């Protein structure tokens, strides 16, 4: 009996894909991606061992439902291993972005969503007199006269939020505003790091759950084999008892007839 099957291996492959996508996001954010390497490597080894186990099963007992899935599993193992070894920040194969289980489509889309980038360039001067002069000039000119100043506000986190009135701000205020934006972005990156950590914990729990399911299947299979052997032994004993009963029945009939014959002889005399 098999200790694994193609659906389990496809689920494990999806777990590896999510881990690789999180690793790529960490690389794109210039974060350390090495924290997940050991887990990904262990999962790849489990996938490789599972495929080899299925190949052995097909060699011993031909099973079309398994052999038809093996080429797809081998392709995914090759692509995932290549992606893991390349340390690339973007997927090198479409296999990484396509889940085997359609219910994981939303998780894959979230993992592939690129973090928002923010321009951190500021324009200010350390000379207060020049700052005052620049602010006075800005009051006289509209935004089209100073495109550099307008480029300081390239986005808003909340689309419904009213735009910042940059005309009423000095260079020092602009600098303070962008410092606050940078701090907000740092907080968002910290939250993203925590989210990646939670995803890693979830991935490890999925791997542990798969290991537990394999152990349970092994125990069930051992119990079935044990009870099947006991059933065969009991069936053999019943067959032997039945044969002996049939043989002893004819002997018993002969003995009874002899006794009856003896009694008849004695009575007739």
Write the layout of secondary structure elements.
Layout: H1 6-28, H2 37-60, H3 64-67, H4 70-86, H5 105-112, H6 128-140, H7 147-150, H8 171-268
Helix pairs in contact: 1-2, 1-4, 1-5, 1-8, 2-4
Task: Tell me what the structure shows.
The chain has 269 residues and is an all-alpha fold. The protein has a domain at 6-115. 71% of the residues lie in helices and 0% in strands. The protein starts with 5 loop residues before the first helix and ends with a helix. Mean pLDDT is 76; it is low at 130-136 and 138-145.
Weakly predicted, low-confidence segments: 130-136, 138-145
Cα-atom radius of gyration: 38 Å
Q: What is the first-to-last residue Cα distance?
A: 74 Å
Number of helices: 8
Secondary structure category: mainly alpha
**Number of distinct beta strands:** 0
Shape: rod-shaped
Listing every helix as H and every strand as E from the N terminus to the C terminus, the arrangement reads: HHHHHHHH
- Binned, the helix content reads over 70%
* Mean pLDDT over the full residue set: 76
Q: Major β-sheet, in short?
A: none
- Tell me the strand percentage band: under 5%
């Amino acid at each position: 009996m098999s200790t694994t099957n193609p659906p389990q291996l496809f689920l494990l492959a999806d777990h590896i894909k999510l881990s690789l996508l999180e690793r790529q996001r960490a690389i794109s954010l210039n974060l350390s991606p090495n924290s997940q390497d050991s887990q990904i490597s262990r999962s790849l080894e489990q996938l490789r061992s599972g495929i080899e186990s299925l190949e052995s099963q097909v060699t011993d007992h031909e099973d079309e439902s398994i052999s038809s899935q093996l080429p797809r599993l081998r392709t995914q193992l090759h692509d995932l291993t290549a992606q893991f070894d390349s340390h690339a920040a973007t997927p090198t194969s479409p296999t990484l972005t396509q889940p085997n289980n359609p219910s994981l489509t939303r998780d894959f889309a979230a993992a592939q969503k690129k973090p928002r980038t923010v321009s951190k360039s500021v324009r200010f001067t350390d000379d207060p007199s020049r700052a005052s002069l620049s602010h006075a000039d800005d009051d006289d000119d509209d935004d089209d006269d100073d495109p550099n100043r307008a480029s300081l506000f390239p986005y808003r986190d909340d689309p419904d939020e009213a735009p910042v009135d940059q005309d009423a701000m000095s260079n020092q205020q602009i600098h303070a505003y962008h410092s606050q934006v940078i701090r907000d972005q740092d907080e968002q990156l910290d939250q993203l790091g925590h989210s990646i950590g939670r995803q890693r914990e979830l991935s490890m729990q999925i791997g542990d759950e798969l290991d537990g399911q394999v152990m349970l299947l092994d125990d069930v299979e051992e119990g079935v084999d044990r009870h099947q052997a006991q059933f065969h032994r009991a069936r053999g004993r019943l067959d032997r008892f039945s044969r002996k009963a049939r043989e002893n029945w004819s002997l018993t009939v002969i003995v009874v007839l002899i006794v009856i014959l003896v009694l008849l002889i004695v009575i007739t005399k």
